[in-house]
Amino acid sequence: AFVLTLLGPGNSAPPPRPAPPRAGLSWTESDSLVRKLQAIESRQKAQGKRETVLVTEGELNSYLNLELAPKLPRGVSDLLVRLDRDRVFASGMVDLDQVQGKLPNSRFSPLALLSGRVPVHIQGRLMNFNGFGAIEWEDIRISSLSLPASVLGQLVASSTRDAENPEGFDIQAPFRLPHACRWLRLEPGRALLDF
Q1: What pTM did the predictor assign?
Q2: Which of 16, 33, 58, 127 is deepest in the core (most CB within 10 A)?
């Protein structure tokens, strides 16, 4: 999934990529993260030495919005991630009309008051333990509503269900760090992955 096509002499040029949808995103930064992920996969296969890989906010945001955009749940767009010491701040747009149909219908749900494309802002504290991570959600806002983590969890789970993962993604559950990473450190503007 993280393999770039390398063109040899005599091959035709790849089709041009679409322009990034907003300022601050670049294919160069996205490609930089793709190369880092490829190096991690190669090192993992070769049982390489311990090392730390630096990922910048620019690389992460460009990768999420350009490389992974076709794989995001329908209705999710314009992601922006900011990193600080042990904390992650994320925002984006969610088209509730595309995901609410997957939620249990209740007029008592705070989401019943909203429709269409709305801004989502979340903040959480990253916790690490033995190759796993978890996020303790501290602030969740959809449009102007402050929501409990359980409502966001239900929204994310319903919009990420597929044949391989019928329950969807659980944002409140611990997760294995990617590519056999032992520790993930967040600092202002960057993430450090220890292998």
Answers
A1: 0.79
A2: 33
